[in-house]
Design a protein that fits this description.
The chain is α+β, with helices and mostly antiparallel strands. The chain is built from five helices and nine strands. Strand 1 and strand 2 form a beta hairpin. This is Copper-transporting ATPase RAN1 isoform X4.
Length: 213
Amino acid sequence: MDVLVVVGTTACYVYSVYALLYGAISGFWSPTYFETSAMLITFVLLGEYLETLAKGKTSDAIKKLVELTPVPTRFFRSEMRYTTGKCGRVISQREIDALLIQPGDVLKVLPGARVPVDGVVVWGSNHVNKSMVTGESVLVLKEVNSVVIGSTINLHGSLHIQATKVDSNTVLSQIILVVETSQTSKAPIQKFADYVSIIWHVFCQNSVMTLAN
C-alpha cells in the first residue's frame, strides 16, 4: 500500500510540475494536482497514526494481561482421600513450584493468593475476586465443584482446587492469544480499504498517463 501511495502521489506531483513549466513556456496552462498529492499523503499518514495508536493500546492491554499471570512461586500440592458421600480429606501436603503443576494436581490456595491455574474446587468455601479476568465487580462464592479461573484472587479462606488446565490452555492464556492475534491480523474493513486503494491508484495512474499523452 505504501508503494502504491508513493507511486501515485509522485506521479501527480511530477506531472503537475511538468504542466506548470510547460504552461510558463508555452502559455497553455494544464490543470495541476499538487493538492491531490498533499491530501493523499495527509490521509495516509493520519490513518497510520490512528493505527499506531490502536496497536499501542492493544500492546498495553496484552502487557496488563501478562501481568495477571501468577509469578512462578510455590504452592502446596495436597493428597486427598475421598470417602463415599463425603468431601475429600487432606492426608498430606508438600510444596512444589508453580511451573511443575500438572492437570489433576490438588493445590492449596492460601488467602490473598492468586489461583495458579484453572481448576475445580474440591474442598473449602470462599469468595473469589474475578474482576481482573472477567470484569465482575461482585465477589463470587466458590464452593465444592465450583470452577475457578487462574489469576483470580482467593480472599479470606483457603481453597483446595484440582487443576484442569495449565500453561497455554488456561482462560487467561487464551485471552492473551486472541488479543495478540487480533493485533497481528488485518480486520476485514482494512483488507477492503487496501483493495479500494489499489483500484484508486491504478485509476489515478491511468488518468495521469492519459492527460500526459
